[in-house]
Amino acid sequence: MTSLELAGTMTDEPAADAASNGAPTTEQASGSPAEPRAHLPRHVAIIMDGNRRWARLHGVHEAEGHAAGVEAIRPIVQRAAERGIEVLSIYAFSRENWNRRSDEVETLFSLLDSAIRNETPELARQGIRVRLLGRLEELPAHTRASVEEALSMTAGGRRMTLNVAFNYSGRCEIVDAVRRALDDGLSPDEISEDALSERMYGSDLPEPDLLIRTGGEQRISNFLIWEAAYAELYFTERLWPDFDPAALDAALDEYARRSRRFGR
To answer: What is the pTM of this model?
Structure first.
């Protein structure tokens, strides 16, 4: 799977209507009849919570919980691509996560570098484009170089976009968008919702239709707070390492049963 498979290790604790996109139907990998595109979200975002609690539950070191979280990413990315999801966004490392123990942060950055080196060729082969959401310039130089290589190698992918929110904060994203607007010379009267939306990190992508959080908590923790204003929220008690393709299918099925009205 993913060159940025590490995503999912660090968030443990601290818009268009899908029915109107007009895309063709998608054949499920299981061989079941094609499902209407209208019943699928174009963009799924996931807060992958629970690695450390999973480790405690199993009586192992928290590093093993993070490793289990890494392993859980691969089948989810594959299943999302099989189901025809256009964009999958995963919350990897928030700017608040810098407050964790230095040894934990250093270990996770080391895992990130290893995952990028090992998995980028496979991502490129599968046609999955990697995008980074966050302040890349604040990352260590060696990590930044590895990430930039992954972005370059997968740039031609058209099957699915994998957004990795790394060193990310929803509030910082809004601040950065305002700064860009000011740098572009916009006057106060010209700073509108559209003007800011055009300056968000993923402004060229559809907004999230479905936001999933594992681990039982029911909050969005500063993740895509601008873009997810109209996203359907789905919370599950499953800890992230136990969130498998069947669990993703259950979330997609629940999404298909909901009626999205956008205030109408």
So the answer is: 0.84
